Please model this.
Amino acid sequence: MGQMRVLGLDPGLRNLGWGIIETAGSRITHVANGVCHSQGTALAARLLSLHTQLAAVIAEHAPGCAAVEQSFVNKDGAATLKLGHARAIALLVPAQAGLEVGEYAPNAVKKTVVGVGKAAKAQVDHMVRMQLPGVAIAGPDAADALAVALCHAQHMQMNGRLARAIAEAGR
Model:
């Protein structure tokens, strides 16, 4: 498998975490990570702010694909709806840049990175640091975004292996 740069996104209306890794075969390296902080008080202004910041991240780091953590539905419908708006930005901006976007449930990300689907945030952070030694993480949202990127890279690698195996079996 060739080189691939993966953007992982952890959507949030106040803080949208992002993390970029690069894979070359089984080798994974950290490229960058951070958090887009929404500006303004009106919902439209906050969404525009996230859009602008995320577009700048993509322009600067040129990922080849992206992955977004799916939202969980909680008891507060208004909060869930607002999170959905932020998630729409996380899906829209990479799509506008021509990137294929994968989506993963939070427990799938945790299972891939930690080995347990109900892992705590501290466990996710620890395993991200183990897989990306020496990385300086910009905060919990960036750690979650890096976990999403690691999850996507692993799934893409597995899909590539499967596709090669099927192609070879057909010969």
